[in-house]
Write a structure and sequence with these properties.
about 250 residues; alpha/beta; Rossmann fold; seven-stranded mixed beta sheet; 7 strands; about 40% helix; globular
Length: about 250
């Protein structure tokens, strides 16, 4: 990978966890297919909030030769991602970047009428506000017995839209579920990371209200860290298999 540099104040992702998400998505598709998924299978994926680092598309293309549409509400983040792609021309053909002009929308304006995607993925902003992010950082530092003089600083980087949004992660994912109904025939599996396990119950309720055909939570682990993502589909298992078999 050449030229993987991101602006100083943007989020720097923990790579092992990001790679896990991609691998578990491949497993999700394999299960839908009822067998193994070839590394060269024609899979298209939407990365909601691709960010300045463009990490999910870079990993997905390198590992599985998938194609990606990466969306973001920040033009500066997309410019950074474009610079990374320019330094890696062998990956450019499989990655398209699109600016989301409506900060209240997720798929609208990004998914075009004639497009179909096997997957969508997202690492949503998990805090409700800058103050909430600050409190979370201080709790982590206290748990790590950090030096008291550093407690006023965030222990992670990231711009506001990367770290917080009104209502936090739960509100963001519920909005995503609601909007996903309009694209139910264009996306096979919708997915999103969920940082707070306590949010799962409300997310399940939203999925039931949306009348999805199937949903599940998939747990991932790296060392002592446990993470998870929720996946949902409006297609029955038979329809999922038919979709993938005909791709």
């Amino acid at each position: 990978m050449q030229g993987w540099e991101i602006p100083k104040h943007n989020l720097c992702p923990p790579i092992p966890g990001r790679v896990d998400y991609i691998h578990y998505l491949a497993d999700l598709l394999a299960n839908s297919l009822g067998g193994s998924l070839s590394k060269n299978s024609p899979v298209r994926c939407i990365d909601v909030g691709v960010g300045a680092n463009c990490v999910y598309p870079l990993v997905g293309v390198s590992e599985y030769a998938w194609s990606f549409v990466g969306s973001d509400i920040e033009a500066a983040s997309l410019q950074s991602a474009e610079r990374i792609l320019a330094a890696n021309p062998h990956l450019q053909a499989n990655i398209t970047l699109r600016l989301q002009g409506d900060k209240k929308a997720i798929f609208k304006g990004i998914v075009q009428a004639n497009e179909r995607f096997e997957l969508s993925m997202c690492n949503p902003p998990f805090h409700r506000s800058a103050a909430d992010a600050q409190k979370g950082s201080q709790r982590k530092q206290t748990n790590l017995k950090a030096n008291a003089k550093n407690k006023s600083k965030l222990n992670f980087g990231g711009q506001s839209n990367e770290l917080w949004c009104p209502g936090g992660e739960l509100s963001f994912i519920k909005n995503m579920v609601a909007e996903s109904q309009q694209f139910s025939q264009q996306v096979l599996w919708f997915t999103s990371l969920v940082s707070k396990e306590a949010n799962l119950r409300a997310i399940y309720q939203a999925l039931k209200q949306a009348k999805v055909s199937q949903y599940e939570t998939i747990k991932m682990g790296q060392g002592n860290k446990v993470s998870r993502f929720v996946a949902w589909s409006y297609h029955s298992p038979a329809q999922q298999k038919q979709w993938l078999a005909s791709s």
